[in-house]
Every structure is written in C-alpha cells, then in structure tokens.
Design the sequence.
RNA sequence: GGGGACGUAGUUCAGUUGGUUAGAACGCUGCCCUGUCACGGCAGAGGCCGCGGGUUCGAGUCCCGUCGUCCCCGCCA
C-alpha cells in the first residue's frame, strides 16, 4: 500500500497501485506522488534509466489510476521528506501501467482550500478521496467496531429489527413507504426501533443492541440528518446506573479506538440543576455555570432596574473576552432572545457605576477575573403581574425544588445567550480548543430525572416529555395519581413527576437519551390516563404493544446514542455531513444521485396513489429536465413545446407573467394538474377536472404520453384558461374545487 | 412556516459612489528543466458575473422575483 513503505523495505521489489496525487516533472526526471487510502509514496521515473516509462509518465494526469512496480530505495539524507510517513524512501519505477484515466475533476483531493458544499456533495466520490474524509470514515468504522466488540463481549446480542414498520402518531413525522399489495396503506420507516427493542426484552433476549439507521422527516440542521445512525440498546432488570455503566463502557472503548482515554464514571446532574446552572438540559461543562446574583442587589437596586425580585438574576460569565468597545457591547443585545419577560443587562460597567457594591459582590460571587465578560439576565418587573398571579405555583414548586415556567424562561434565555457568547468569543477564551488532554477536551455528563410531563401552552394540557413508555419515579407515583385529576391545570402535581429518564451529554451535545420503561400494564394505563388518552384510544394506537406487556414483561430499560454525533465530535467536525459518506442537504436532497424525484404515473398507479398537490419539487425536477432550448409553439389549436428559443416559458402577457409547463397525461385521467406562476410570483397549482379539459379542447382524445400545455391568465380576481383565442373562465370552478396556493 | 449569509473562470476569491476590453491565485494546455515534494521558468486557453424581470444613456454593482447551498428559530417522543 502507498502508505506502508519504510526504510527497512529498502532494496525490496514492490508494486503500488493508486491515484496520481501529483506529478512533478523536472524534465528527464519525474516524480509522481501515488496515493491510496493508506497514504502517499513518491515514485521516481528517470528517463536515463527507462525512456519508455518516462514517456508514459509524461502522459499522466491528476487522479489517473496506475500500477507501478519498482525497487524501494532509501532517499539521500538531503532529499528526505519529513512531512509524509513514507518520506525516507521512494519507489524507483521499473514498470508502469495506466489502469484508468481520469477526466479533470472539478476539484482535487489534494486541494487545500475547501470547495463549496454543493460541488463537494455532487462529486462526493472525489470529495471522499480527501484525506480528512478518509480519516473520518475510517474513524467511524473504528468507533462502530469498538462498540460492537465491547457490547458483544458484555453479552449483548446484535439483533436486527424491521425498517418497514408501523406508523405511530407520536413524535417526529414518519417517512412513509406505500404498500403495493395493499393499496392505500403505508409502512413507516422507524424513527427508532423503540417498540421492537422492548418487545425483544419481552421475548427474552435480555441484552440487545443494534447499530441501526433511523429516519425522521423533520427539518435539518448541521447536527441533524433525515437518516442517521443510532447505537440502540436495551436490557432487562436494570437500574439506570447499570445502563450508564454499559454506556460509559462502550464510550470508553470507542474513544480509545479514536486514541482518547476518557474518565468514568461521568458526573451526574438532575435536570432541574442543569436548568438552574446552565439554562439548558444539555450543559456544556467546559464553560462556567451561571451564578444567581439576586442577593447581591439591594431591594431598591432591583426596583430601580425594574427587575422582578421574585425571579432569579442570572450572571453569565464568559472568560477572557477582554474590554469590549461600545459597538461590541451593542452587538450582544441582538444575540439575546427573550422568553417570557426575561431582560438583559449587557453593560456590566454601567451596573458598576450605578451600584458599585452590587457589582463588587457579583464580581466576587461569579469569580470574575480580569477580562471576563459578565452579562446579567433577569425577569422584568412588568412580568411581575402574571408572576404574582401564579405566585402560588412559585411557592408550591419551590418546595418541590422544581423550576417554575417563569424561572425556566429566565434560565433558558440566559442559557442560549451563554452559548452564543461563548461561540462568538471562542477565539478569545480558547475554551473550545483541544488541549490534547481527553479529560478536559471531552466533558461528559449524565442529566437525570427529567420531568415526566411537559406543559403545552397552546393545547393547555400535559404531554409526555420523553415517550409514553418511560417509567415515572417510584416516589412520584402518588403525584401521578392526583395529577391525573388536574390534567389541564398548569399547576397540576404532574409538573413534579420525575421520569426515570436520562441523557448522556458531551460538550453541550446530546449524545443519547434513554429511560427505564414501564413494564406493568396498570402503570401504563395510568400514564395514558394522565396524558388524557382513554383505554380505547391507547388500544387503537399501541394495541399490540399493550397486549405484549400483559404477558409477563420483565422490568427493562435502555438508551440510544447518535453514532454520527459521536464520530462528529471525535473528528472535530462542525457538521454531520463530514462523517456521513452520502449525506443530504438542508432540503433533504441527495445531490449526487439527485433524490428525491417524481415517479412515473405507472408507479403511482400500482401503489394506488394519486398525487394531488405537486409542489416546488415537482416543478423544479420536471422543468430542470427539459432541454433549455424549448419554447412554446401553437399549432392546430393546441400548444406544443418546440425547439426554438432559450428557456421554457410563455411570453409574458399583459395580465399576467405566466410560466407554463407540460403535463404528461396518463392513459386515463380524471383531471389535469396545472401549475402557474402568477404575476405576484406566487405559484398556483390546482386540479382541473376532466370535464373542464373537454370544454377547453372539445376534440381532444386523451392518449398515452400525450402532452398538453396551457396558461392560466388572471384578470383581476378572475382566472382564465387560454387555448388559442378562446378563454375559458375557471374562476368559479376553482372556487368549487380545491385551489391550492403554493 | 420564519429569519440571516452566500452565489463572479474548473476551484478559492477580489471587483471602489453604477462608467472603457471583469482581475488575482491555484488548477488546466503547450514548451523548457536530473532531486523535486506548495518544484521552477516561459507562453496560452478559459466568464450567460446562478436564472428571470425592472430602473438607467449605461448594471457584476441598485430594485423585485426566482433557483440553489449554508446557518439559525419553529419543528425534531
């Protein structure tokens, strides 16, 4: 392999195969850097030694695939290249074969400046040749293998679960797979194998794991792809601590495989504590926690600052930011997104001028050092009105050590600001820079005792915060019982029910989430009742599962971790795309294979599917595939696309600037779908029933593959179809059918 | 669904208050070069300034729309 040769190999014969990474042509002496997965070796071709090979080498271009046989030679001391592992040797070519040529790639794997994502994704096979990508994918393999090996050694079975499964209304949107055999019905791709793994526990496979693809049809982020990989595991009879031990074990193995020695056990923190100290349920422990500095102010100070004295005053300390200019201070304000009456005091100097004693106390309490930035977040006095009204909640919650919604608003606002500030001044405080000490670089944390229920302000009800199979705390069972009576009361005892749920967090990223599950039918019923679900509704949605629970279900629990995120952090990457070989864009498009695409009518018909609304995707995919040189032409009272002009489209009319495009008619049709861009730039698409088509084109006989184009014209509030000189008003008709505005 | 950034040569980018023929670097092509490894030297090719409208005597530059990529909010049990 190209990265393998060492001085000890000197004198040996070797054959290397790989890509031409670089050719340095010095005339009758040519150097070729030959690259494969393992590295780069320099090949020397000397015209004096072999004119034929030299001639062949002159034809080589970047990314040609070649095979070279030659003798490994130690380099002279003066020509050693310390930058590469094979730098002390080179291969003197005695035979050279061009295995394949290459077109000039849009970018080279050896380029130092990164090409834009669009090009990288389109030519992913070239992008993946880059050493960083090779490293990341190899790292991913090593991590996955380490986890498999560890869990297997611990007695876990890797068991596969179906990809084509049942849609559940809970949680994220499902990706659906239509059934041909039973038209009108759909499988769903799993958001996670949650129910199957619990069924496996019921089935007696007491330790299960799987490195498995999951699918969620939600909007993407840098750390969210529509398909992603989970390390999913479940075991019987565990305390949460037992699950944590297993996770700590395989993470240690995974990080070791990546060359990092991490410490276990990870620290643990209650959800409430995480909110109080960090304003978020996935704290980044590398940064300083909040300090509550309400006590540092005198009551009059708070009044003067219009701060609500019954809510916390949070100090955010960002280290080593240094003196900020007026403009820089102003830049902080837009970074703050106030929730529920939270307000910001970004100018600590001014606080110091006005209230020197308070400022001194704050500086002391926060451990402020020279150059540290202090920003305060507090509840505004205006928020006091509704605060007073629910002061009862405040006291009640205080006894439960529970964070109230009002406090949460302050903490959460401060929490996002804390991260934004840390991000903005990352260069200055340097906390995010790797030190090389894994214990400092990777700050793990277990966040535990999540609330069982979340208040939905819109629906005025309590929802399951995790999933409805999460077991509540044994001690909170009584609250659960009484809380059921107050399902639509935001102050319900349900607010204080804790779940046996836990998250594993690394450097502010949620790596995984798990829980001890409910294994008893009676508890499960109570939870469903608490969620306002009747027995019948519950049966309807989770029938098979509830039935399974009744056949001797052992206590069980587990967790699922995002493999992509783990590898991303290990690789030091900013985006999941860097650790997924074939990722999708923010619009869930695969730019290499160009998916998704519209499918033929025949395919849809087989599935019993009728697509009513063709959206942007349809329009784009269909239009883009038309030759650019088409223009509309009218003949024999019909409109055709002809090869004349530059773009597809109709000449702009006075009334409306309309584009139009073809619709491929099926053998049989009940309606046409037309899409039209109105003068306001809005895309209208609507269904045109068959009898209207007949009115417009009386002589028209639908034929397979026949294409028709028409234009929708708008005149004020009236809409017309145009066919030749005829105009057919469809305004009224549109009112009766569904006109869908895109 | 909402907000923001970006789109100029194959690639990364520059392009002034709108004003001659749109530049640089790398890459590419040809020639020269025996110790390079970011090789060097000489010569050269390469542009619907994303697309469509508009304003203007004049648009890469201003306005509107649209397409695409990225980031964020909502969403993601």
Sequence:
């Amino acid at each position: 392999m190209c990265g393998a040769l060492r001085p000890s190999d000197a004198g040996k014969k070797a054959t290397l195969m790989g890509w031409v990474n670089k050719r340095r042509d010095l005339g009758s002496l040519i150097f070729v850097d030959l690259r494969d997965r393992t590295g780069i070796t320099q090949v020397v071709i000397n015209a004096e030694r072999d004119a034929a090979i030299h001639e062949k080498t002159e034809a080589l271009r970047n990314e040609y695939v070649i095979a070279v046989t030659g003798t490994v030679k130690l380099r002279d001391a003066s020509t050693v290249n310390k930058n590469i592992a094979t730098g002390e040797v080179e291969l003197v070519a005695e035979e050279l074969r061009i295995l394949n040529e290459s077109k000039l790639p849009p970018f080279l794997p050896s380029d130092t400046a990164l090409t834009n994502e669009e090009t990288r994704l389109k030519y992913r096979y070239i992008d993946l040749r880059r050493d960083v990508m090779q490293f990341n994918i190899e790292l991913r393999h090593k991590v996955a293998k380490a986890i498999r090996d560890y869990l297997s050694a611990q007695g876990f079975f890797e068991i596969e679960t179906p990809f084509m499964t049942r849609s559940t209304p809970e949680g994220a949107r499902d990706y659906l797979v239509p059934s041909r055999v039973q038209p009108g019905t759909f499988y769903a791709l799993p958001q996670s194998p949650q129910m199957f793994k619990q069924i496996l526990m019921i089935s007696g496979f007491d330790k299960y794991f799987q490195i498995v693809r999951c699918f969620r049809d939600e909007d993407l982020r840098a750390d969210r792809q529509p398909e992603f990989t989970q390390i999913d595991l479940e075991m019987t009879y565990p305390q949460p601590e037992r699950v944590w031990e297993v996770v700590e074990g395989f993470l240690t193995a995974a990080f070791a495989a990546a060359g990092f020695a991490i410490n276990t056990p990870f620290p643990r923190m209650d959800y409430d504590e995480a909110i109080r100290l960090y304003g978020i349920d996935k704290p980044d422990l590398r940064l300083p926690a909040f300090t509550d500095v309400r006590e540092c102010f005198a009551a009059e100070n708070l009044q003067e600052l219009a701060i609500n004295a019954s809510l916390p005053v949070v100090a955010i300390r960002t280290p080593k930011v240094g003196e900020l200019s007026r403009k820089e201070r102003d830049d902080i304000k837009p970074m703050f997104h106030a929730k529920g009456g939270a307000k910001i005091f970004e100018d600590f100097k001014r606080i110091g001028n006005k209230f020197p004693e308070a400022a001194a106390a704050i500086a002391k309490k926060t451990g402020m050092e020279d150059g540290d930035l202090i920003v305060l977040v507090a509840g505004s006095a205006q928020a006091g009105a509704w605060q007073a009204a629910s002061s009862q909640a405040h006291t009640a919650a205080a006894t439960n050590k529970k964070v109230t919604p009002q406090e949460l608003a302050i903490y959460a606002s401060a929490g996002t600001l804390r991260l934004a500030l840390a991000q903005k001044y990352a260069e200055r405080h340097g906390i995010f820079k790797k030190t090389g000490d894994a214990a400092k670089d990777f700050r793990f944390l277990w966040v535990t005792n999540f609330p069982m229920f979340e208040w939905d302000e819109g629906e005025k009800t309590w929802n399951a915060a995790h999933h409805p199979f999460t077991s509540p705390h044994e001690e909170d069972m009584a609250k659960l019982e009484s809380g059921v009576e107050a399902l639509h009361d935001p102050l319900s005892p349900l607010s204080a029910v804790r779940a046996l749920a836990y998250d594993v967090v690394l450097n502010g990223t949620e790596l995984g989430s798990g829980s001890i599950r409910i294994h008893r039918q009676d508890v499960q019923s109570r939870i469903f009742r608490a969620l306002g679900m009747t027995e019948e509704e519950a049966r309807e949605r989770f029938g098979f599962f509830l039935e399974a629970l009744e056949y001797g279900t052992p206590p069980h629990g587990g967790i699922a971790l995002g493999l992509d995120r783990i590898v991303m952090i290990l690789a030091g990457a900013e985006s999941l795309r860097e650790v997924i070989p074939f990722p999708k864009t923010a619009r869930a498009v695969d730019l290499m294979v160009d998916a998704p695409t519209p499918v033929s009518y025949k395919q849809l018909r087989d599935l019993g599917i009728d697509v009513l609304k063709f959206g942007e995707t349809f329009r784009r995919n269909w239009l883009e595939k038309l030759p650019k040189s088409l223009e509309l032409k009218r003949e024999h009272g019909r409109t055709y696309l002809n090869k004349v002009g530059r773009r597809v489209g109709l000449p702009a009319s006075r009334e409306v600037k309309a584009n139009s495009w073809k619709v491929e008619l099926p053998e049989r049709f009940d309606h046409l779908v037309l899409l039209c861009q109105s003068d306001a730039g809005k895309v209208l698409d609507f269904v045109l029933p068959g009898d209207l088509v007949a009115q417009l084109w009386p002589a028209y006989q639908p034929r397979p593959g026949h294409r028709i184009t028409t234009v929708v014209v708008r005149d004020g509030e009236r809409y017309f179809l145009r066919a030749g000189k005829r105009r057919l008003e469809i305004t009224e008709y549109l009112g009766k059918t569904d006109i869908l505005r895109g």
Q: What stands out?
A: The two ends of chain A are 55 Å apart (CA to CA). Chain A has 24 helices and 31 strands. The CA atoms of residues 229 and 313 of chain A lie 41 Å apart.
